[in-house]
Description:
Layout: H1 2-21, E1 31-33, E2 41-43, E3 49-52, H2 58-66, H3 69-87, H4 97-118
Antiparallel strand pairs: 1-2, 2-3
Amino acid sequence: MDDLMRFLGDRLDEDESVARAAGGRSADGLRWLDHGSGSGLVSDDTGMVVTHNTGVSDQHAAHIAHQDPARTLREVEAKRGLLKRYEEPEASAALPDSFNKLTAGVERAVLLEVFRHLTLPYADHPDYREEWRP
């Protein structure tokens, strides 16, 4: 299953790279500003227009704003936290090693199932393996 975690980590690296190239962290993020029929736009927190809805429906423009690069970076951070938790399961010095090994095994099994679900958005990637599908 190391390939699954590596695959997910690589996709997170790609997501992070794209989000940073699109502006990365912003204070308030992107906003959909509806100025009446046919005049909506998406702007960033500095007021710079990212896209007018010319050729983009109001729904698509709202989606673009919702999928703000800052939000993507927060999602990447959260998913990397889960990957780290898999690599370093929680243990307690107050418990015997045998119990810590048991709980680490259970935690990893649960996280593997989570990772199978988290890779679904990347199922169209050429490196995705059908065996990972939950």
